[in-house]
Design goal:
six-stranded mixed β-sheet; 4 helices; 8 strands; alpha+beta
Length: about 170
């Protein structure tokens, strides 16, 4: 089921609603520009509620498979991005100091908010700074120095060893 794009987070929090569903890849332009490809729809689950101080909050998770480039071997790499988030709905920047420490502020000036933007922001924050294949699966592993169980570095084929032999 597709998630609605525009929602009233205050009303959903007062009612304690749970939204579960997907966001179409076409609605994730910023994420699409940040990765090589988006491999499937973004799946999300968001619970709206009131906390102890009656603040309107939204907690949930978003998952999306993306393809990016391994920085070691430059081959394609599929990542399953997962973002867990907890936000507090605020009306203006004047309310930033009222946001509890365990929540991030979600500034909703108008009555309606764009849910896709919130989910896309959270997934973009989950992108790793540098992408690598797991150890042993990367074709670029030959350039990594192996460490023995003792912790000593194993001598690798260094192209400058030829120069050392010429020096002798």
């Amino acid at each position: 089921m597709a998630l609605p794009t525009h929602i009233d987070p205050r009303k959903l929090a007062l009612q304690g609603n749970l939204l579960e569903g997907t966001v179409n890849v076409a609605d994730l332009a910023r994420l699409e520009a940040s990765v090589s490809a988006i491999c499937g729809p973004l799946q999300a689950s968001i619970q709206f509620s009131l906390d102890e101080s009656r603040a309107k909050i939204a907690e949930g998770e978003a998952k999306v498979p993306v393809e990016t480039v391994c920085q070691r071997c430059l081959d394609p790499l599929v990542l399953d991005l997962q973002a867990n988030f907890a936000v507090q709905v605020i009306w203006s920047e004047d309310h930033l100091n009222r946001v509890a420490a365990n929540y991030e502020p979600w500034l909703v000036v108008d009555k309606m908010a764009n849910l896709n933007e919130l989910l896309e922001d959270e997934v973009l924050l989950a992108l790793p700074l540098v992408n690598y294949h797991p150890a042993g699966e990367c074709t670029g592993d030959t350039f990594i120095k192996e460490v023995e169980a003792t912790g000593d570095e194993v001598a690798s084929d260094n192209p400058f060893n030829v120069l050392l032999q010429l020096k002798k």
